[in-house]
Amino acid sequence: MQKGGAVYIMTNALKSVLYTGVTSNLIKRVQEHRNKVYPESFTAKYNVIHLIYYKTFPAIEEAISEEKRIKAGNRKQKNELINSVNPDWKDLWDEDVSKW
Q1: Minimal CA–CA distance to 54: which of 16, 14, 13, 99?
Q2: CA-CA distance, 90 to 61, in Å (whole number)?
Q3: Model confidence pLDDT, tens digit, residues 62-99
Q4: Domains located in the chain, CATH noted
Q5: Facing residues of 19 across strands?
Q6: How far is the C-alpha of 98 from the C-alpha of 59, rounded, in Å?
């Protein structure tokens, strides 16, 4: 049985740092970042707590492929991807969490 997944991008308050990740449980994973469950991690160190992009996939393998594609891109390409769905870079956790 295949399990779905999501690729996501998070940033800090200054929007100076981008973190791209993949998960099979987006709500849990974003909560972990926001609560700094792993205090030595990149996201904890740079206070990356704002969810600014996500896309879900029916299979985790598809999400992993998309994560690799995004990570291979440069900052300009990542900015364009984010702007295509969230031009104001709003924290989608606040905007979308009630829909999940």
Answers
A1: 99
A2: 28
A3: 999 999 999 999 999 999 999 999 999 999 998 766 56
A4: 5-99 (3.40.1440.10)
A5: 10
A6: 23
Query: Cβ of 32: how many Cβ atoms within 10 Å?
Result: 16
Looking up tokens 């990149």 gives 42
Sign of the four-CA dihedral 20, 47, 89, 94 = positive
Q: How many CB atoms neighbour CB 56 within 10 A?
A: 12
The answer, yes or no, to whether residue 50 has pLDDT greater than 50, is yes
Express each pLDDT in 15-41 by its tens digit. 999 999 999 999 999 999 999 999 999
How far is it, in rounded angstroms, from Cα 46 to Cα 61? 28
